[in-house]
Design goal:
By secondary structure, the protein is mainly alpha-helical. The chain contains five helices and no strands.
Amino acid sequence: MGIVAFLRILFRYLRPYWLQASILMLLLLVDIVFTTAWPLGFKFFIDYALEGRSQRMLVIILVSLLAGVLLSSLASLGRDYFYAFLNAHVMHDVRLKVFAHLQKLSIDFSSRVGAENILARFS
């Protein structure tokens, strides 16, 4: 199975949870932006607050960095929540589909393959 086929199947399972998946992507974007901008904040801190000896700029930069840390922490917490939510629900849907498929298989298949092999594959 190629990556395109895998993504097509994945998006089919994510379709009922499009709102949660969209929120997850937005939170990931917030986290990426903050992680990328973090060194730039220290550049401003060194260039304008320390070298410029401006107390006003020092307070502005430190408050901005603190707000960024808080926002990034909240985004990370939300990201982890939505990731766990999507993981649990998509895995539940996959298990239901596999179980429904197993119910449709013949008894001959079950006796030929063996219950332990089917259970190993199922779990």
